[in-house]
Amino acid sequence: MDTKQQEGIGSLNQDFKKYEQVHKGQTYHLAEKQGEDEFDEDYKIMTCDMSLLSGGDAGKKEFARQLGDAMRGIGFAILTGHGVDATLYNEAEKKIAEFFETTTREERMNYRAQRFGSVNQGYFPMKETTIIHPDLVEGWVFCRRAFNMDGSPGFKESDFWPRIGYEPFFRKVCLQHERLIVPIMQSILRYLGIDEHLYDKKLTKTNFGFRLNYYPPIQADDDASGAGRMLGHEDVDLFTILPAQSVDGLQVLNRKNMKWIRLEAPQGSIVLNTGDYMQRITNDVLPSTTHRVSKPKNRSMNSKPRISFPMAVYVWEKEILDVLPNTGDPKYEPIDAETFHTRITSKYYGDAYAK
To answer: How far is CA 224 from CA 9, 12, 219, in A?
Structure first.
């Protein structure tokens, strides 16, 4: 662990404020501080039923109200009625464990993450997700180009995947999530009183970052170091689609009282949260909400791996992030997505990463 990462264990988010492209007034430690952080045991993340969307105008209006209130209040919602078979998620957890546990480090390092467009894509070794905190996770980011989404005969699986056979399975997961993107955005726009189809074209076959996270069992020295499984952060996207995990650890910051909420979603549900793109275009109406992955509350679970597979929804690099109408006097100038994205993520990858 280098000096910068070691310092990051005790760092505050405001130490990296210069990189932010939307207003973030909250101050928090990147990793949980035992005995210092306070927890909100009363706040309940709202559950929103996507099956309402099949209930005509009244159903669409009610789902938009539920989702909008959740996003405006804390930036997180739990989605039920989304239509994705829970058995697919159960199989995905097993496949991800197999993916990391049966490939060698040498095989994975052949796909070491590199910037392509806005996004650092590929493999992130343990403690190297960022340069500012030694996250206790191995990760792998696959963007749209890593999946044969359109049946191209020229697609070569080995360009992106260390073993043949994983891409078709995870493509199924991405396709299931892709069909949710436009309805979710339409509901957000409906809530804001804006033409609900404004983003339909931008989000049809748009780019995304599908991340496989493998948090190995926590070793005693890592436990003692104070490092978290994933540093406190806000996502750099429109919104993130995250199937509920079987091992706890996800914590959400309630900015109203600066206490952390331990988010435990029912198996088979989806956790949805807004990111920096969304905060920018909604003129701060829908905040990009702080969250982190900490060690399990029940320390006996330290010996069990934790698996997650979030899908971050982007717009393509040349799209302009404009403040939406009906959100007040614009606080932000128009900016292209690539410039916006890389300026923020330079805090994770170094100043040279910015466009």
So the answer is: 11, 19, 9
Q: Give the dihedral of Cα atoms 65, 68, 73, 74; nearest 10 deg.
A: 130
Which amino acid is present at 19?
A: Y
Structure tokens, 198: 């404004």
Percent of the chain with pLDDT over 70: 99
pLDDT score, position 215:
96
Place of tokens 């991800």: 96
Per the structure block, which two tokens stand in for 221?
A: 């020295």
> HSE on the CB side for 273, CA within 13 Å?
28
User: Do 125 and 139 contact (CB within 8 A), yes or no?
Assistant: no
In this structure, CATH architecture of domain 3-353: Sandwich (2.60)
Residue 271 to residue 284: CA distance in whole angstroms: 21
Q: Does 7 score more than 80 pLDDT?
A: no
Distances (CA, A) of 167 to 95, 239, 263, 354: 11, 23, 30, 30
Q: What are the structure tokens assigned to 3, written together?
A: 């000096």
Q: Around 274, how many Cα atoms within 13 Å sit in the side-chain half-sphere?
A: 27
Q: Are 252 and 287 in contact (CB under 8 A)?
A: no
Helix (H) or strand (E) run with residue 276 in it: helix 276-281
> Distance (Å, rounded) from C-alpha 172 to C-alpha 93?
14
Contact 236, 275 (CB under 8 A): yes
> Between the CA atoms of 256, 11, 247 and 213, what dihedral angle is there, to the nearest 10 degrees?
120
Count of H-run helices and E-run strands, the chain? 8, 16
**Dist. CA 57–CA 216, nearest whole Å:** 46
Instruction: Give the Cα separation of 49 and 62 in Å (integer).
Output: 9
- Four-CA torsion 12, 133, 277, 292, nearest 10 degrees: -80
- What is the C-alpha separation between 52 and 58, in angstroms, rounded? 8
Does this model's pTM top 0.90? My answer is: yes
Least Cα distance to 232 among 27, 54, 51 occurs for: 27
CB 232 within 8 A of CB 13: yes
- For 36-73, how does the pLDDT look when each residue is reduced to its tens digit (9 = 90+)? 999 999 999 999 999 999 999 999 999 999 999 999 99
